[in-house]
Design brief:
Layout lengths: L1 H21 L1 E4 L11 E3 L1 E4 L9 E4 L7 E6 L2 E2 L12 E3 L11 E3 L8 E7 L4 E7 L4 E3 L5 E3 L5 E3 L2 E3 L8 E6 L4 E6 L2 E2 L12 E3 L11 E3 L8 E9 L2 E11 L4 H4 L1 H48 L1
Parallel strand pairs: 12-21
Antiparallel strand pairs: 1-3, 2-8, 4-5, 4-9, 5-6, 7-8, 9-10, 11-14, 13-19, 15-16, 15-20, 16-17, 18-19, 20-21
The structure holds 2-acetamido-2-deoxy-beta-D-glucopyranose (NAG) (6 copies).
Length: 304
């Protein structure tokens, strides 16, 4: 009897050691999330090993306090939690026996983006998960310069970069005219404004990297102005801005008259200034001579 139970304990200890020794904590990176959405940070012990009686620690080493969610002795240790995460975290407690220690985070905010660490101290396992949150659509601070009749790329990209091919990408003018629309995985030219028909394209092989730059061909002067690039997912939208301008010497191609007028005015002003200078000079010289003569006269009167 004693021997039998001792043997049983021994066997299970060996089995446990073997299983523990070979189980690794395997985490993966979730897709980027939009602010307000919920996300699961997926982590599990593989091959499966029950984490029911383990201390499960989710932390963010860059925060103080660093604890996001700690589970021990079958309960959540609320008092350790960083207050920014109050009422927003949970483990799938019914999944712990399968080694699933994934963390669910609700109502994600911009500041939730970062590196999360999951640790199981009792089996000396630890792994990290990167959480990315949709942040900004970046257009261009500097105006893009175009040449009449040429092609131009209006730059726009996501920060942080992520695949946008399943979302709606839209380029519009300042007045709201649709320049280019990409939705349901393809370009939608039906609602495109006539001004841009057949002249726009996106770089489809760049979109999985968050690049939604627009190529505009055969540019005309009426294309000048401000453009917005936007990304939409249901009700949520993020926007960037790009301004398209023409070089002053390029406009000569389109509006010769205004440039000619400017040049003429400049020449006239220059000529007038020159004449004025010469006139002033002459007057000065004459006055100078007069002054000299007057001094002489004064000297003469003094002498007399
Ligand atoms: C981790 O999980 C992924 C996806 O389930 C799998 O492809 C990979 O082999 C696993 N890694 C380990 C070390 O178990
Ligand atoms: C863990 O369980 C949850 C809830 O059932 C599930 O959504 C998630 O995909 C599981 N994660 C892993 C890594 O198995
Ligand atoms: C986006 O793609 C275009 C065309 O290939 C390229 O000129 C531009 O530099 C890219 N932008 C970014 C941010 O990668
Ligand atoms: C460019 O636009 C002008 C004016 O709209 C048009 O006459 C010309 O045919 C266009 N060129 C090309 C190559 O599409
Ligand atoms: C474009 O937007 C910038 C900044 O908002 C503004 O300064 C500029 O005047 C606008 N350009 C046009 C042509 O509307
Ligand atoms: C004018 O044209 C020249 C030659 O094409 C070019 O180098 C220059 O950048 C253009 N713009 C200005 C503002 O001079």
């Amino acid at each position: 009897m004693g021997l039998r139970s001792a043997l049983l304990v021994f066997t299970s200890a060996v089995v446990n050691a073997a299983v523990t020794g070979s189980s690794v904590l395997n985490c993966s990176t979730p897709n980027i999330v939009w602010p307000g959405d919920d996300v699961i940070l997926p982590c599990r012990l593989q091959p499966p090993l029950s984490a029911e009686s383990m201390r499960v620690e989710w932390t963010r080493p860059d925060l103080e306090p660093e604890f996001i969610h700690v589970h021990q002795d079958g309960r959540f240790l609320y008092e350790l939690q960083n207050p920014d995460y109050n009422y927003r975290t949970s483990l799938f407690v019914d999944q712990l026996p399968n080694g699933n220690v994934s963390l669910k985070l609700s109502r994600v905010t911009q500041s939730d983006a970062g590196t999360y660490r999951c640790s199981l101290p009792s089996v000396q396992q630890e792994a990290s998960v990167q959480l990315s949150v949709v942040s900004e659509v970046i257009g261009s601070d500097q105006a893009v310069r175009a040449v009449v009749g040429g092609d131009v790329i209006l730059p726009c990209h996501m920060k942080p970069p992520f695949d946008v091919t399943t979302l709606t990408v839209e380029w519009k003018t300042r007045n709201g005219a649709v320049v280019h629309k990409f939705t349901n995985g393809g370009d939608n030219t039906d609602i495109q404004n006539d001004q841009f028909k057949g002249r726009t394209s996106l770089f489809h092989d760049e979109m999985h990297k968050g690049n939604i730059s627009l190529k505009l061909t055969n540019v005309t002067l009426t294309d000048a102005g401000n453009y917005t690039c936007s990304l939409r997912k249901q009700q949520q939208e993020k926007k960037g801005n790009v301004e398209l301008v023409f070089d002053s010497n390029q406009t000569i191609v389109g509006s010769t008259s205004s440039t000619t007028t400017t040049v003429t005015i400049v020449i006239i002003i220059a000529v007038v200034l020159l004449i004025a200078c010469v006139a002033v000079c002459l007057i000065r010289r004459r006055q100078g001579n007069c002054g000299g003569r007057r001094q002489h006269e004064q000297g003469d009167t003094l002498r007399t």
